[in-house]
Amino acid sequence: MSQIETIGTALFGQSWMSQVASVLTNENGQGLSRQTVQSWHNRDNLPQWAKAELKSIAAKRKNEVNAMYELLNADVTLEPQSGDGWRTTTFSSEKSRAMRDRQSP
Fold it and tell me: Whole-model pTM?
């Protein structure tokens, strides 16, 4: 498995190659072709600039996953915050139950 395949699969799942191509841009700000990503995969040669961009995307995804983990494991509500990520607010059990009851069908 190439380095780009390992990273791409972790970030995007089975359609990793097209997704990597869609999120990365070249030095002119243009999107990459899937063939470019395929070439990196075939040669197992991930350019440093692409690795740096994917690292930034992974960090953002990590923040999103952590926020979702908090939501699933505590009585919290999530609100988008400026920049990348979410802000969590914890409520008392009584208030959380009341909010859940209002949202239940």
Answer: 0.67
